[in-house]
Amino acid sequence: MSDIYIRALTPDDWEIFRALRIRAITLHTNYFLQHPDKAKELPVTHWQETLDGKGKQVFGLFDGQVLIGITAVFTWRADPKGATGFMAMSFIEPEYRGRGYSDLLYKARIDFAVKHHAWDRLIIGHRAGNKPSEAAIKKHGFKFVRTDEIEWPDGTKDTEYNYEMDLHAQRKEKGV
User: Could you tell me the pTM of the whole model?
Assistant: First the structure.
């Protein structure tokens, strides 16, 4: 029987986070906006600062003491006002997929964003053809807003589908 849970990662978790992040982008270079070779070169301070919880949060999905998934929500750099949260970095080990655990990843990030009053909206995107991500995004209440053509780390240009969630409406609905 497994003991599956999610918790916020801290700078002390940097080694297990780094290992799983590099594994994720190595397995799925076509879906992540980072190349594994570049990730491997990042200093320890990068990994620790990513987990510092300042205007962002990275969550780990665990089976007992084993990290089996990661996900994150950050302040979107392209918003000069800092009023947009950006969901990214979701990965679950292949043998744990299809069991509904992605719901835990979405719930953790949305709950964090609703409580993080600096943000007015939450955004997320997926590459064309990533049907599991598309289904999960729509299931959790995000609304489609636009497509962009971008260059992916695998060296190809492809469509990214972008969605958003109104956090003011979420706060009102949840009484936060």
Answer: 0.90
The token pair that represents 164 in the structure block: 């958003």
Q: What is the CA radius of gyration of the chain?
A: 16
SS3 state of residue 85? strand
Count other Cβ atoms within 10 Å, centred on residue 1. Answer: 3
How does pLDDT run across 47-97, given as a tens digit for each residue? 999 999 998 999 999 999 999 999 999 999 999 999 999 999 889 999 999
Sign of CA dihedral 20, 86, 101, 11: positive
User: Which residues pair with residue 5 across a beta bridge?
Assistant: 62
Paired tokens of 160: 């990214």
